[in-house]
């Protein structure tokens, strides 16, 4: 019997708790609600909704287990909840199998207030569970409650920075660049430290901090860092939205008597600099801080400490910080214990009250970026005396940590890069130069330093004029240790995949290292040269992203950014937030902009949550209307098309396929999805309008691009024929002929693709969804270009911008990573049911292709863990599946109709799917081993 294996993954404390509770209670034969969430987050500290949605997972040792009713209690205190007193809401018994997105329906919630809740459920046998563990949520502040006062070292008016962020300042204009440099006062660009002493004379019960430091901040209380964020708050269009963070502190963070709040500020995307490398020059203003801390004492009294004129500031030892150019630190400028009591700040200056950012203050609900992994030096080469290049073994987004010793005033310059020149030195030519870190020693033993406000994509580190490990030359400082910090969003991983094919395993690893590298405040295109949120990657890689990562709280933030960036005429730009205006097709391309329409649907399909469709329906509708203004007889002709399609031509604009075909197909797809959303949301007039529009676009598309004689679309390319099949634009009577033409082209090209960034997903899924998984296997099971194997053979650890790594600029892009969808949905066979979103019901229908002998994947759905693990052994096909409580699955087996089938060694009768030509099983929750004769 095949046993389901446990994969080695980074598991959060909440997941470990969930696993412990699961095994404890299922051993006692109970169904139990676990992992309670509010607005899809565990114990959130800033719930915005007046009627938040409550959810929970269910666990049980019984098969076919389901919920038939629930009872929720919400209380104003933990004591009341422990006494089963739901003084805020007692739902009473509600007869339903629904355990997700239960709308709170109790007393009106107060802002800045903590609530406690729990739930119990009844199973299919009428047995009631124990109460769940207590969960909490804290409501967000109203802006009137926050009453923000912004402070800093210099006002915006005195800083002489460009007036606001607009479509003229955020450009490459060289004259503006020079004026930006000449007009900038050092205080407008310099990292500063702010401090506020305060006294505690009574016993503290708890304290809550509300803070936004722009561009980025680091907060300490009595010298101890609060939270683990890097680059907080997350990036936004600061003219539209400004994120603030919320931290809950307990009594041990404070000491009786004197205490000190310390805040370090850096530039981030809020205030980019012109020196060294930068992608663009833009400023929303000088560094600025909003702070509020509400302290509750045991005696019931409260105290509020806010950012105001009583704070002081000083320049920090960080003498230069640029998100694009690097960071410099002079340890001789350190002021020891500046953020602790007893420090004399008589030389510090009083802060000024600054102009508030234009954007609306919103609590950051997406998870923070953190240091996730650390890498040691793998190999080191001394190219010439005291000139070293270190290979850290992994291309990543992040920054180094150095330990050095030497004389006061000596300095060390750290260069980082993705690749090397022929002579072995680091090469930044493709990825943006110059980028480096400078550290000036204070001469006090071994000194350790980690940058705080800049990151880059790199694998190699170059340091000149140093000793390494041993003090050979006293003229130079000695590098004692070097580490590489991998930073990415802490949302957490949702899935795992592995199989018998080594190319596919390595491909999965390459893609996910690239996704992680670009999983920052936004999904970026690359972590070095641009760091920009190009939108097409999200929707084209959407299923792979959602199978691999927990995006329940991240994608709503993405949609807020999209909404903020949408122009008055409905245009959704290609990058969001739109920090720079590239113009033309690089600002307005339908394949990119339509992400604002597709993403809410993907969110609904994977998480069973229609909130993004409800909230952003106007955004979706306005974008489709905008495309209508650009259309002539329903044909849209602008954009980038199938960007970076493969061929002998230089990469860039689509060359193999008509740009108009690509643009119009996405116009159709947008109209089709808006019609679907209209129907789901009960918007009858909108449904009729956009359903008619979609039909008219389809007719115009076929008239313009389809050749009835040849049964080919456009230029007969793979993209031209795959897109209309995928989007169901091709008329049914022609579908098979178009499909055969597509297959013929693939065969003619030696089972190689010619698609690019946009076309890959449509090609891959057209093959997968139409029974051509063997073709998919041949197309990717090789080491030639174009293909993933070529990059593996090249020795890379991340996916590159082009199929041939020797071309293009970045070695850390995930835009070509659309095969992840095939790994999970086809090879492992985990497929959602669009009729029952969120995997309430799903399919497991693995494909056995080529010479593969096993494949396995698991996915942490909103209902619980789904797993599919199959192997071919001794003439048998053995499949182990895991189906969460309160869900059902249809299993489609890749064996003959008359195959003998056993479940857990018991022979069973099965149905047969005539269309798929596969035996079919319908199963409820549980873990099953299914054995079939091949």
Give structural attributes.
EC 3.2.1.40, alpha-L-rhamnosidase, Alpha_rhamnosid, 24% helix, hydrolase, 934 residues, alpha+beta, seven-stranded antiparallel sheet, eleven-stranded mixed sheet, hydrolase activity, single chain
Please characterize this protein's 3D structure.
The chain is α+β, with helices and mostly antiparallel strands. It is globular and about 85 Å long. A hairpin with a 5-residue loop joins β28 and β29. The longest helix is centred in the last third of the chain and has 22 residues, at 659-680. The strands form ten sheets. Strands 19, 20, 24, 25, 26, 27, 30, 31, 32, 33 and 34 form an eleven-stranded mixed β-sheet that branches. Strands 35-40-41-42-48-44-45 form a seven-stranded antiparallel β-sheet. A six-stranded antiparallel β-sheet has the order 13-12-15-10-18-21, with no helix packed on it.
Share of helix, binned: 10-25%
How large is the count of helical segments?
21
Compute the CA-based radius of gyration.
29 Å
Average residue-wise pLDDT: 94
> Which residues form runs of ≥5 with pLDDT under 50?
1-28, 164-185
* Cα-to-Cα separation, first versus last residue: 16 Å
Tell me about the largest β-sheet. Answer: 11 strands, mixed
Please state the structural category.
Answer: alpha+beta
Give the oligomeric state.
single chain
Domain Alpha-L-rhamnosidase six-hairpin glycosidase: 493-826
Protein name: alpha-L-rhamnosidase
Domain Alpha-L-rhamnosidase concanavalin-like: 382-470
Enzyme class: hydrolase
